[in-house]
Design goal:
Number of strands: 2
Structural class: mainly alpha
Shape: globular
Number of helices: 18
Strand order of the largest sheet: 1-2
């Protein structure tokens, strides 16, 4: 059962925001990925044999500590959580708990059986993004549904160019690290279409890392390729495709400052995981995953998360895997990427795949 649920989760992932179920009265949106990951978690919990193996995993203890601190932060701020909608905060906390089951499931199963589905899922995600860019370039109507408005940018099934760009940047770096230059070309092209400067920066930093570690001058070709694409891609009127735009920069800086101000007010356990909508409004967000954690779970939550990351980085010794994790974590400095459920899913999936599967890809 665990195997089939894992495959289903991998196949559902690329459809992102396209598949959603609104829960009237609760103000919540449920996705098939939530349901499958929830069932996947239950399939692990109700198997004593699997649980015994999971408990012995090096990431189990630091992950458990982080999750317990996140839950405690919400419990200590129960009053504000109730004011902002306890169901909303609890639901997002539940997501924090269930998505790591992907990592443990892949570790329990044969990576060779899983990897073809990962490749197919990535192809589907890329194809949907390409369809959106060429056939539905004007996505400004999404502002009526609570999303940012985008014009002639690849936003894909995530409805956001930054999150889609994070995936394309990470995947491109994986292919480049593996020496799969031809396979990397389409994902670099898709990355260029997002016009996400944070994703471009992540890609360039990753290239520097690969260049320093491999001393391979052909890596500079990928830098030049993206630069040429950025010059040649049509840029119709609109602030979103203006690479010199400053509004988003100042908007991010303001969100960081607001997050740090909230952290200073409650530095120990924060305001409670994902309770900020009751404090600053429904549209409030912090464009940095680490500042977000500091504000919502305090210094204790942030330190427990850094302890988890220390163990994660110790486990990711193979360059392609390390590069993908690096890309997502670096991107999280400019957006709250890591706790966006599809990025969070990809993070744990990449960690679970064994090194030999990257090598044999």
């Amino acid at each position: 059962m665990t195997y089939y649920l894992l495959i289903l989760a991998i196949l559902v992932w690329p459809f992102g925001q396209l598949l959603n179920i609104s829960l009237p009265g609760l103000g919540l949106t449920l996705y098939p990925l939530d349901l499958v990951c929830g069932l996947l978690t239950l399939s692990l919990l109700f198997s004593s044999k699997k649980l015994k193996i999971i408990v012995q995993d090096p990431l189990f203890r630091p992950l458990s500590i982080f999750l317990l601190v996140a839950a405690l932060s919400l419990l200590l701020n129960l009053r504000s959580a109730i004011a902002g909608g306890l169901a909303y905060s609890t639901f997002y906390l539940l997501r924090l708990f269930i998505y790591p089951s992907v990592y443990f499931s892949v570790k329990l199963l044969s990576g060779k059986k899983v990897f073809p589905y990962v490749c197919f899922s990535l192809f589907t995600f890329s194809f949907l993004g390409l369809l959106q860019y060429f056939f539905f370039p004007d996505m400004r109507f999404l502002k009526l549904l609570g999303f940012d408005d985008h014009y002639f940018r690849l936003i894909g099934s995530f409805y956001d160019p930054n999150f889609s760009g994070a995936v394309f940047a990470g995947v491109s770096l994986v292919f480049i690290s593996l020496g799969q230059w031809l396979v990397a070309l389409p994902t670099i092209f898709l990355l260029a279409l997002t016009f996400s400067r944070a994703s471009y920066l992540v890609f360039f930093l990753g290239l520097v890392f690969v260049f320093v570690s491999k001393k391979n001058w052909t890596i500079l070709f990928n830098f030049l390729l993206l630069a040429i694409l950025l010059v040649m891609i049509p840029k119709p009127f609109g602030e979103g495709v203006n690479l010199l735009r400053t509004f988003s920069i100042f908007s991010r800086l303001d969100s960081w400052w607001d997050g740090l101000s909230l952290f200073v007010q409650r530095p120990v356990f924060g305001w409670g995981y994902n309770t900020l909508r009751s404090i600053r409004g429904e549209r409030f967000q912090i464009d940095n995953s680490f500042v977000f954690l500091a504000a919502t779970t305090g210094l204790i939550g942030l330190l427990s998360f850094f302890n988890l990351l220390k163990n994660v980085l110790f486990q990711t010794k193979y360059p392609p895997q390390k590069l993908f994790v690096f890309a997502l974590l670096t991107h999280s400095l400019f957006n709250n990427s890591l706790f966006y459920i599809w990025i969070y899913f990809a993070f744990w999936l990449a960690l679970g795949l064994p090194s030999k599967e990257y090598k044999g890809s």
